[in-house]
Amino acid sequence: MSLAQPSELIEVEALPDVDREAQARAGLKAFFAIADEWGLTAEQARQLLGGPSRSRFYDLKRGKASAVRSLSDDELDRLAYLSGIYADLNLLYAPESHQEWLRNRSQIPQDAFYRPWGLGNPLNYMLQGGLKALADVYEYLNTERGGH
């Protein structure tokens, strides 16, 4: 299974007039709304974003221009994957079930079908597994919804 590249998740080419800072600002706004909807703690949200310092995390949350401009490629990739995961969850499940899906441990034997998080749950896998785990969960959901 090949990993989707973040550029495949957000059609940057389709938005030629949108600069990096505008993309970062939009991605952060979406990220913090998703984190709220998923009921994430500040520490969980910070971890999904790649573990910025607490002060930088809150600067990003407030939309402080210097913090937004300083987003790394890794952080932008994380925002893209998390937005893709959110979109796929919305296509597959009712919004009120997202938190349950993210937090429930699998009751199905691990060898019954492939899940990158094994017998754990998707949220813990993403929190512990870094960018690769975000890509894995995105790919899993994309496959579930019939994407490529």
Verbal overview:
The protein is mainly α and 148 residues long. It has one domain (18-144). It has eight helices and no strands. It has helices at 6-9, 20-37, 42-48, 54-62, 65-69, 73-92, 98-103, 122-144. It starts with 5 loop residues before the first helix and ends with a helix. The model has no long low-confidence stretch (mean pLDDT 86).
Strand content: under 5%
Rg over CA atoms: 15 Å
Provide the structure class: mainly alpha
Shape: globular
Mean pLDDT: 86
For the termini, the CA-CA separation is 10 Å
Q: What are the segments in which pLDDT stays under 50 over at least 5 consecutive residues?
A: none
Helical segment count? 8
Largest sheet: none
> What is the percent of helical residues?
55-70%
Order of helices and strands: HHHHHHHH
Compute the number of strand runs: 0
User: How many domains is the backbone divided into?
Assistant: 1
How is this fold's topology laid out?
Elements: H1 6-9, H2 20-37, H3 42-48, H4 54-62, H5 65-69, H6 73-92, H7 98-103, H8 122-144
Helix pairs in contact: 2-6, 6-8
Key traits:
globular; mainly alpha; 148 residues
Concise structural overview:
The chain is mostly helical and 148 residues long. The protein contains 8 helices and no strands.
